[in-house]
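Here is an idea for our session: we take a single protein and study its fold together. Start from the sequence, derive the backbone structure tokens from it, and show both lines together. Once you have written the record down, we can walk along the chain together:
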Amino acid sequence: MTVPMKIAITRQKQKYRLTTIQTRTYQTQKKGGRVKTMPAENPRTMSEEQPRGVMGEGVVDNLDPGLSRAFQFADQTVPAELRNPEKLRMKPGHLKISGDGIFYTLQGEGPTMGEPTSFLRLQICNLACGQCFAKGSKILTPQGEIDISDIKEGDEVISYIDKRYVVAKILRTEQRKSQAVKFITEEGIHTIVTPEHIYYVDHHLSRGKRGLRGGQSRRCRAQFLRDKYVLKAVGVPFEYPLGFKNLAERVGYIKGAMLGDGCISKQGKYSHLYWQVCDSAFAEVIRDILNKDFKHRANITTSKRDGRRLVYRLSVSGNVTASIISAEPKGEDEVRGYIAGFFDAEGHTAKNQLILSQKDVRVLTSIQNLLTTLGFKSAYEKRNKADAIVINSKAQIEKFFKLFPIQLKRKIDKFVNTSKTNVSVRVINVEPHEALEVYSLKTTSGNMFVNRYLVEDCS
């Protein structure tokens, strides 16, 4: 009995290997209750002498040597209409074959994983997979939101890993034309994206809605987002510059630090300046400014307050230094440094709040007036131990950290970590959209924020 076959399966040391042959007929014999298949004539197994398959003609020469090997063993008997080279679609670092035939590659799963293997494709792949966004989509970066068409390889974007915002880099950018859908959230934001792009969703609120596998899932394709809740960034996903821009900011900072945690005393003809702080990083910033800008030789000493809490002390003497530091801040740069120094000394953040505390009412009133002139809305609150100025708006707190050269990063991090980082926003409608040019990005972290919604990388 002879039947047409294209492959032979041989068993070698409990492993199965798939081998292409050139003969079209096989002889099948029934022996000992088992069906044994053998070639009618000596097969030509895979070797470098075999000619290239017709499937690769016209495109094989442009491939890397390792990829071109996939075409060296294509079956000559595959119909011509299934060997159209135009069906081959390539991307940098990707190889995709559309069309039936036998091709050579490595086994990706099972006991023979990693071994050279030939695969028989049983049907044409009609998918044009890709996850992309239309021009005008905004990518969240440390510098703010940037149009996706302006993002380049090597740029930094904001990602979300282990419930924290992190900075990732762009590995690859691509552009193509594709079908798309447009979805609208309850906030009125429109996003145009390819149907298969994957969004992260709130699986509790989206329970019972179709996900990647039709059930409850934390991810969902764009075409199935209707009535689901996508995750939106609302925290502080930015990096803030902690350095000073100029001398004026440093002078203003030391003035603010003196206002919060320092004092000036007069002993005879000389003025003495003292600081006592509870943060070693804060003490180091004060010391560096005194030594670099005021030419002192300040050192940090430590002691325990009440026998328990460690405090850091600095002291210098100088009439000129005292006269400069005790003067009111002048100019915008000095005012920015002044408020930053006072915040590092007396300020802190709670959930959705920025608080500046001080027992001296006149000091708080002057700080509040300066904040008002810079466009900040704050409330003055009477409290038991010390009065406080409170900023309640997240947007205002973000602006505060961007405008003033805060030096204690832990205070910024506390606000980032205690404020709710993502909120859930319902998608009210998903509708088809005409084909258009779309852009795809690949990041080092695997996700990013587009129009502030958390999505997987483009692929």
User: Anything to note?
Assistant: The chain is about 20% helix and 40% strand. The CA atoms of residues 44 and 294 lie 86 Å apart. Confidence is low (pLDDT under 50) at residues 1-78, 85-100, 123-129, 209-216. The longest strand covers residues 164-185.
